[in-house]
From TrEMBL, chain A:
Transmembrane segments: none annotated. Keywords: CBS domain. It comes from the Bacteria. This is Cyclic nucleotide-binding/CBS domain-containing protein. InterPro entries: CBS_dom, CBS_dom_sf, cNMP-bd_dom, cNMP-bd_dom_sf, Diverse_CBS-Domain, DUF294_put_nucleoTrafse_sb-bd, GlnD_Uridyltrans_N, RmlC-like_jellyroll. PANTHER family: CBS DOMAIN-CONTAINING PROTEIN (PTHR43080:SF2), CBS DOMAIN-CONTAINING PROTEIN CBSX3, MITOCHONDRIAL (PTHR43080). The keyword tRNA processing does not apply. Residues 156-220, 228-284 form the CBS domain. It holds the Pfam family cNMP_binding. Gene3D superfamilies: CBS-domain, Jelly Rolls. PROSITE patterns: CBS, CNMP_BINDING_3. Residues 17-116 form the Cyclic nucleotide-binding domain.
TrEMBL record, chain B:
CDD domains: DEDDh. GO terms for molecular function: exonuclease activity. This is 3'-5' exonuclease. Transmembrane segments: none annotated.
Length: 626, 249
C-alpha cells in the first residue's frame, strides 16, 4: 500500500526552492505534507500563535502583514511563508490572511529543518536572513569572472627593471634592450640603500624614446628624467585587475607600476590585461580619440553598445561596466572639446568642462542623458567671451546627442547659461545650496553633487568638491534636506504574480529600475557620503568610506553594497537583453521577464533599500547633530 | 473514481436508492458490532462513529475513492482504492494509502482507458480480501468522505458480500450531494437560453472553489481532491460548529 502523491510531487518539482531536491526526497516530503483550504479573507496564521509547519501556497494568494498592520508581502502559487517564526521560537511573527481562496501545503517543522540543514541550495532560497541569500547571489556572480577576482599582482611576471634618475636616455634604451622590456621605472637612489628600496620618480617607455627623444631630435645623452613621465599613475598590488583596466582607460596609459608596501613590485602593461578583457572598451576609447569628425564619432555609438553587451556577456560586475561606460562617455566629451577648440579657436579664458551625475559617479550605462556644465575663469566677461563658450557648448551638446547621449530633460547642460558660469559663481551656487537649500535645488541635488572635471582646468572641479565636502559635513539642516530628497523615490515592495507590487498593495505592470532602484540607492549613499566627508564619487567607494566611518548599523553597509550590485546588474542585464533582441533598451523591466532567482533577490534588495531609507530619515533630522 | 455518463448524473435521487439520512449511526454501529461475524468488521464497528451532534471541527474523517471495472456493483469490481485521512483543519498525506486489487470481474476496455490500470497491473495484485484488514483499520473511527457516495458504499458492500458473506454499512459525507445542495440553478430565462445547471463533476466542483486542477482517475489523487473539496465546501457554506449530522447520510 504505497501512497502515490503524484500531484503533490509534480507541483513541488516545478517550484523553488524544491527544484534542487531529488525525486526521492520530494516523495518523502510529499508523504509528510498536510493540506488545508482557506476561504478568501480567512486568517491563516495569527500573530503569536504556535506553529509547527512551514507553509507553501499550492493555489490562491495570501497577504503577509507586519505586526503593526503594514503589508509586508503578497504571495501567490509557489510562494512560502512562516519560516521566520519557525526557525526562531515557533511563534507566528507575521500574521497571514488568505487574499483569494487558497490551498496550502504544510510541511512539518522537523522535516523543514532537515531540508534546511542538509540542502544548501534549498536553504539559500528559503533563507530567513534575506540578505544572506542576496550576498550569496552576488558572490556567485563575482566568482564567475576572473576580472573581478584576480588581483593585480598575479599579472606581475618579473621584478621591475629599475634605472637611476641620473641615467641618460641612451642608457635607458640599452637597458630596455638588454632586459627585453618596454618600460623602466626611474628611481632616485642613495649609496647606502639598495636600489629596490629607492623612491620611484617616474616611468620611461620605449614610446617615450620615440616620441620625446628621437622625434624632437634631442641628443642621446639627454637625462632620462627629461623624457620620462613623472606624474605617475600607480596601482597597489592587491587591487583587482579590472581596476587596473579602468585606470589605463581613464588616463590613457599603457604601463602601470605596481606598488607593494610603498615599493615598486613590477610593471603591468596593456598586453598583460588584454587577455582579461577582449580589448573592447580600450578599443572603443582609442577609436574615439582617432575620430576626425563628429560623423565618425557618431558612427561609434554602435561600437559602444557592442562593448556594453560584451562586458555583460563576460560577466563583468556593475562597477566595471559603469566605469567603462563612464570612461567612454568622458572620451567622447574630451575628443569633442578638442574638435570644438579646433573649430572655434583657443578659448579666450580658461575653462573646465564638467560631467555631472552618473558619469561623474562612474555609474554610466547605455541609456543615459547628458548632464554637463562649464566652469569659466573668474576673468570671464559675458560681453566678450560668452559667444565663444555658448558656441562650444552647443557644438559639444549637439554632438553628444548625436552620439547617443540624449539632451538632459532638466536642461542641466553647458548650453544653459545658468550652468555656464565663472568659478566664483559656482562657489556661490554651492554655498547657497548648502546654507539655504530650496525646494528647487532639491530637484537638482542628485545631479550637481556628483561632479567631475573632464577637460580643461579639471582642478577647479576638485576645488568645488572640496568646498562641498567642507560645508556639507557639519550642516545638519542641509543633510536633512538632502535626506528628504533622497526619500522621494521609493522601491516597490516586491512582486506578485505578473506585477510589481507597491507598498500600498497596488500593482503596476513594469518597474523603472533606475528610478526605483539604483537612483534612490545612489541618493541615499550620497547623503551618508556627504555626512562623513567622503571624497569618493563612485557609490561603491563612497559606501566603503561610510562603512569605515562606522555610522551605519552593523551589517547594513555590506547589505547596501550587495543590493546596489544586484539592482544595477539586473538593470544592466536587461538592457543587454534588449540590445540582443533588437529592442531599444530602457530602464523598465516587466516582471514576467525576470527569472525566479532575480525576483526573489530583487525583492530582498528592495527591502534593504527600504530599510536603509527608514534609517536615513531617522538619522538626518533637521537640527539633529551629525 | 469512475465518472458516470452525464445522463445518469442528472437525477441524483434515482442513484441513491438507500435513504440513510435518518439513521442513528452510533446506535447502528453498536448493533452491527454485535451482529458482524468477521473479526475485521467487528473491530471496525466497535471503533464506532462520532455522534451526529459532533461539530465538524472535531470529526475525524477519511476521504475514500475507488477505481472500478464498471458502474454496476453487481457486475463490476474494485481495481484500486485510495484514501487520505483528514479533519476540518488539515488533510494528512502521512496517513494516505493506495492499493491496487484484483477484481473478480473482467477489466473492461473502457475502464482501462479511464483509470489506466491494466491487466498486467492487476495480475500481480492481491484480492481485496487480503487488504481488508488494513483498509478497515484505516476507516475505523472515521467518517467516510466520497464524491458520489453510492459508488464507494455499494462497491465495498458488494465486494464484502461476495467474499465474506456479509456486507458493510457506514455513513458517508458526499461532496457531490453537497454540490447539488449548493449548485447554482439557472432561472427560467437562463434555461430558455440553454444555460445548464453547474456540473457536479469533481473537477468542476473544485474549480468553483478555486482549487487546482488534478488529473482525475487515480484513486489516491481523487481521494485527495475530494478531501480538499470538502474543506472548501465547509469553509464556504458551513462552520466548524456545524454538526456532522447536517452533512452525512
Amino acid at each position: 500500500m504505497q501512497a502515490e502523491h503524484i500531484e503533490i510531487v509534480d507541483f513541488l518539482r516545478q517550484h523553488q526552492p524544491f527544484t534542487s531536491l531529488s525525486d526521492e526526497v520530494l516523495q518523502q516530503v510529499a508523504v509528510q505534507i498536510s493540506i488545508a483550504y482557506f476561504k478568501a479573507g480567512q486568517q491563516i496564521l495569527e500573530f503569536g500563535a504556535e506553529i509547527n509547519d512551514w507553509y507553501v501556497i499550492r493555489s490562491g494568494a495570501v497577504e503577509v502583514f507586519r505586526r503593526n498592520g503594514e503589508l509586508y508581502n503578497r504571495l501567490s502559487e509557489g510562494g512560502f511563508f512562516a519560516e521566520f517564526g519557525l526557525l526562531r521560537n515557533k511563534r507566528v511573527r507575521f500574521p497571514v490572511y488568505a487574499l483569494e481562496d487558497t490551498l496550502v501545503y504544510m510541511i512539518p517543522e522537523p522535516l523543514f529543518t532537515e531540508l534546511f540543514d542538509n540542502n544548501e541550495e534549498f536553504a539559500d532560497q528559503v533563507e530567513v536572513e534575506d540578505r544572506t541569500r542576496l550576498r550569496q547571489a552576488v558572490a556567485r556572480r563575482e566568482d564567475a569572472n576572473e576580472l573581478m577576482t584576480a588581483r593585480i599582482e598575479t599579472l606581475v611576471s618579473r621584478e621591475p627593471v629599475l634605472l637611476p634618475a641620473s641615467a641618460t636616455a641612451r642608457e635607458a634604451a640599452i637597458r630596455m634592450t638588454e632586459e627585453g622590456v618596454s618600460s623602466l621605472l626611474v628611481v632616485t637612489t642613495s649609496d647606502d640603500q639598495p636600489m629596490a628600496a629607492s623612491r620611484l620618480v617616474g616611468i620611461v617607455t620605449d614610446r617615450d624614446i620615440r616620441d620625446r627623444l628621437v622625434t624632437p631630435g634631442l641628443p642621446f645623452d639627454t637625462p632620462v628624467t627629461d623624457i620620462m613621465t613623472a606624474e605617475l599613475t600607480k596601482v597597489e598590488h592587491n587591487q583587482f585587475v579590472f581596476e587596473a583596466i579602468l585606470l589605463m582607460l581613464r588616463y590613457n596609459v599603457h604601463h602601470l607600476p605596481v606598488i607593494k608596501q610603498g615599493l615598486p613590485l613590477g610593471v603591468i602593461a596593456l598586453a598583460d590585461v588584454i587577455r582579461y578583457e577582449s580589448q573592447n572598451s580600450l578599443f572603443v576609447v582609442r577609436s574615439i580619440f582617432n575620430a576626425q569628425t563628429v560623423e565618425e564619432l557618431t558612427a561609434l555609438a554602435s561600437d559602444v553598445r557592442a562593448c556594453f553587451s560584451r562586458l555583460v556577456a563576460e560577466d563583468a560586475n556593475s562597477r566595471m561596466i559603469g566605469g567603462s561606460m563612464a570612461v567612454i562617455g568622458r572620451s567622447f566629451k574630451q575628443r569633442l572639446l578638442e574638435m570644438a577648440e579646433e573649430k572655434f579657436g583657443p578659448p579666450p579664458v580658461p575653462y573646465c568642462f564638467l560631467a555631472l551625475g552618473s558619469m561623474a559617479r562612474e555609474e554610466q550605462l547605455i541609456v543615459t542623458d547628458q548632464d554637463n556644465a562649464l566652469i569659466l575663469d573668474n576673468r570671464f566677461d559675458p560681453q566678450l567671451h560668452d559667444e565663444y563658450f555658448s558656441n562650444l557648448a552647443t557644438f559639444v551638446c549637439d554632438a553628444l546627442d548625436a552620439c547617443g547621449y540624449t539632451y538632459c530633460k532638466g536642461k542641466v547642460m553647458a548650453t544653459n547659461r545658468q550652468w555656464r558660469q565663472p568659478l566664483k559663481v559656482w562657489e556661490q551656487y554651492f554655498s547657497e545650496w548648502i546654507e539655504r537649500p530650496s525646494p528647487e535645488f532639491l530637484l537638482n541635488s542628485a545631479i550637481f553633487f556628483d561632479l567631475e572635471g573632464v577637460w580643461g582646468e579639471t582642478h577647479w572641479s576638485e576645488m568645488l568638491n572640496d568646498l562641498i565636502r567642507r560645508k556639507a559635513r557639519s550642516n545638519s539642516r542641509f543633510l536633512a534636506c538632502m535626506a528628504r530628497a533622497a526619500l522621494m523615490r521609493t522601491p516597490p515592495l516586491g512582486f506578485f504574480k505578473g506585477f510589481v507590487m507597491e507598498t500600498d498593495g497596488k500593482h503596476t505592470n513594469s518597474i523603472n529600475m533606475k528610478r526605483r532602484g539604483t537612483a534612490p540607492l545612489a541618493d541615499l549613499i550620497r547623503v551618508h557620503a556627504l555626512a562623513v566627508g567622503s571624497a569618493a564619487h563612485n557609490s561603491f567607494e563612497r559606501l566603503q568610506d561610510i562603512i569605515e566611518a562606522g555610522i551605519l548599523p552593523p551589517g547594513n553597509g555590506p547589505d547596501l553594497r550587495d543590493a546596489l550590485e544586484l539592482i544595477a546588474m539586473v538593470r544592466i542585464r536587461h538592457q543587454a537583453l534588449d540590445l540582443q533582441s533588437g529592442i531599444e533598451p530602457d530602464n523598465n523591466i516587466e516582471p514576467e521577464n525576470l527569472s525566479d532567482f532575480e525576483r526573489k533577490n530583487l525583492k530582498d534588495a528592495f527591502q534593504i533599500l527600504s530599510n536603509a531609507q527608514k534609517f536615513l530619515k531617522f538619522r538626518y533630522q533637521p537640527g539633529r547633530a551629525v | 473514481m469512475f465518472y458516470l455518463p452525464r445522463s445518469q448524473l442528472q437525477n441524483e435521487s434515482s442513484l441513491s436508492t438507500e435513504d440513510l439520512s435518518a439513521v442513528d449511526w452510533p446506535a447502528r454501529f453498536r448493533e452491527l458490532a454485535a451482529s458482524a461475524r468477521h473479526p475485521a468488521l467487528q473491530q471496525y464497528y466497535q471503533a464506532g462513529v462520532p455522534a451526529g451532534s459532533t461539530a465538524m471541527a472535531d470529526v475525524p474523517m477519511v476521504a475514500l475513492d475507488f477505481e472500478t471495472t464498471g458502474l454496476d456493483p453487481q457486475q463490476g469490481g474494485i481495481v484500486s482504492i485510495g484514501l487520505v485521512p483528514l479533519t476540518l483543519a488539515r488533510i494528512s498525506c502521512a496517513g494516505a494509502a493506495h492499493w491496487i486489487v484484483r477484481p473478480r470481474a473482467r477489466l473492461s476496455h473502457e475502464s482501462i482507458v479511464v483509470h489506466g490500470i491494466t491487466h498486467s497491473d492487476i495480475a500481480a495484485a492481491p484480492d481485496i480480501s487480503k487488504v481488508l484488514d488494513d483498509l478497515l483499520a484505516q476507516l475505523a473511527g472515521r467518517v467516510v468522505v466520497a464524491h458520489h457516495r453510492s459508488i464507494e458504499r455499494r462497491f465495498l458492500n458488494n465486494a464484502l458480500l461476495t467474499r465474506l458473506g456479509e456486507g458493510i454499512e457506514f455513513p458517508v459525507i458526499d461532496t457531490m450531494a453537497l454540490a447539488y445542495r449548493f449548485r447554482h440553478e439557472p432561472g427560467f430565462w437562463q434555461r430558455l437560453r440553454g444555460r445548464k445547471p453547474d456540473s457536479v463533476r469533481l473537477a468542476d466542483c473544485r474549480r468553483r472553489y478555486h482549487l487546482p486542477f488534478y488529473r482525475p482517475h487515480h484513486a489516491q489523487t481523487d481521494a485527495l481532491a475530494c478531501a480538499e473539496l470538502l474543506q472548501a465546501q465547509i469553509a464556504h457554506h458551513f462552520s466548524p460548529q456545524t454538526p456532522v449530522s447536517d452533512l452525512w447520510c
